[in-house]
Amino acid sequence: MPSQLVLLRHGQSRWNLENRFTGWVDVDLTEQGEAEARAAGGLLAAEGLQFDIAFTSRLTRAVKTMWLALDELGQGWVDVERSWRLNERHYGALQGLNKAETAAKHGDEQVHVWRRSYDTPPPPMADDDPGHPRFDARYAGLDPRVLPATESLALTLERVLPFWHDAIAPCLRGGQTVLVAAHGNSLRALLKYLENVPDDTITGVNIPTGIPRLYRLDDDLGVIETRYLGDAAAAEAAAKAVADQAKSG
Hints:
This protein is of the alpha/beta class. The protein has helices spanning 14-17, 31-46, 60-73, 99-106, 108-116, 153-173, 184-195, 232-243, and strands at residues 3-9, 53-56, 79-82, 178-182, 213-217, 223-228. The longest helix has 21 residues, at 153-173.
């Protein structure tokens, strides 16, 4: 039978609510975000999915979304692997800034490029910035040279793909059903890879919070079918809300 993969963006975070660039900053879920994660679990249950393994990032909003969804699904016992390679795209010096205010200062077009272009990163974070991941205990065992100070989507894909090939893909090739709970841009990178989305098209792709995207994959991990679970119009509206976050007007 085809293997099955679910990509799940974390529920609304506190900085999603405040419309701020979050990146690698460890921000928790809001009450709405927790509700979205549980609702995602309900959609997974309605689909009759039984997971063999789950993967997530090292950021609380993704980890908590994964646990809440699995708990709602009655599968809290599923093995979980966390990796920094599934972290959100690093937004560099923009992290913590309000998106609309940044757009008012730099222009909607520039902020759209920073947020959604494939290969243009935002201005980098200074190496001595206390918020740099080299000072975070989560990454103490890593060579500081692999830790980003800013990333484009292309760079995010470069760090996500080794984890896909080394950890996730072997599970799928073994016939396992896999959940990946992560972030808007690390999942956009995976979506681009899985669905062969062109560089100039990925700028218009937005992933809604808390709505699972299901893939059925063939033996070579080619996509047979993909769709958001639940109401398609609701997923489209949620994706549009993500796209509108950085507009200045």
